[in-house]
Amino acid sequence: MKEPVRIAITGAAGQISYSLIFRIAAGDLLGPKQPVILHLLEIPQAMDALEGVVMEVNDCAFPLVRDIVATDDPNVAFKDIDYGLLVGSRPRGPGMERKDLLEANAEIFSVQGKALNDNAKRDVKVLVVGNPANTNALIAAENAPDIPSGQITAMVRLDHNRAKSQLAQKLGKHANDVKTVIVWGNHSSTQFPDLSHCKVDDKPALDQVDQDWYENDFIPTVQQRGAAIIKARGASSAASAASAAIDHMRDWALGTEGYVVSMAVPSDGSYGIEPGIMYGYPVTCDGGKYKIVEGLEIDDFSRSRMKATEDELREEREAVKHLFGK
Ligand code: NAI
């Protein structure tokens, strides 16, 4: 058996974690031969609920779980971790403006960025799920100067998976038949789910659907899918978000074998996007590293959509800039 790896999950008593923790414990993230030590972080008020989750994990007698650390201290939660899934965040409360939400979360993610910087392994892989995910990840990264740039990322994989599934359903195919869907930009309603490089059964997707469906049905459906789930379920996406978080981390750790997936990563200026912002890009992963797919041709329609979501991310960054590196 291999040495165990340490995986931190924040917001560990929340809905997404109630799926995520058990799937990781079952081996869905790193496979059936990789033991894990779970580091579970919550706020003090949720520690009783977290204790219940720990009891349930113990009751599963998972072969791969070697230990569980349950804490309300980010410095303990992030000690020597190999992976961090930052799920916990502050939800929008009554009367809270978007700016208040950004600021409340920016406080949380600046504290957690510092705790990562002080405690995590230098090659830690971090995924921010808690919203506003892209900007929360940016804040964490700005507060973790000793963690190499690019090791803190944000999740657009749920949007990517939703796009694959919507297109497959439209064409009566399986999601496996869909290749090179891209979600550019922010995990928000400005995101751009792009089919212009996508192939289904090795043929261009846009030759198989009409432009009207693409622009006026597909794109808004993917953009608004989170709201549609809340309307139907009375609660936000949880199991699908956990599944996407596992996909993101597994692909990053174990590789995509050339397959293109979407990850929000610090822009290096590729495709003319402002350097530094956490922007959803097409990537491939190999040897524990991701690489932005370069050289795709971008038409005017795509360019304007990519710009709109970039503008939103720049605005978000402006709203929280005062918390960088404090
Ligand atoms: P939830 O409200 O059920 O759970 C969140 C948990 O985080 C709570 O138990 C809370 O006590 C905890 N928490 C709050 N502040 C914390 C802190 N500073 N440290 C540690 N824990 C903290 O929410 P749920 O449904 O699990 O969603 C979590 C987040 O994920 C939300 O922000 C949600 O909007 C976001 N999300 C992101 C998606 C994406 O694609 N990026 C998809 C779906 C949800």
UniProtKB/TrEMBL annotation:
Active site positions, chain numbering: H187
Pfam families: Ldh_1_C, Ldh_1_N
GO biological process, one term: tricarboxylic acid cycle
Enzyme Commission number: 1.1.1.37
Keyword Aminoacyl-tRNA synthetase: no
InterPro entries tied to this protein: L-lactate/malate_DH, Lactate/malate_DH_C, Lactate/malate_DH_N, Lactate_DH/Glyco_Ohase_4_C, Malate_DH_type2, NAD(P)-bd_dom_sf
GO molecular function ontology, one term from the record: L-malate dehydrogenase (NAD+) activity
Top-level EC class as recorded in UniProt: oxidoreductase
Domain Lactate/malate dehydrogenase C-terminal: 157-322
Binding, substrate: R92, R98, N131, R162
Reactions that this protein is recorded to catalyse: (S)-malate + NAD(+) = oxaloacetate + NADH + H(+)
Keyword Cell membrane attached: no
Keywords: NAD, Oxidoreductase, Tricarboxylic acid cycle
TM annotation in the entry: none
Binding site residues for NAD(+): G11, A12, A13, G14, Q15, I16, S17, N105, Q112, V129, G130, N131
Physiological role: Catalyzes the reversible oxidation of malate to oxaloacetate.
Protein name, per record: Malate dehydrogenase
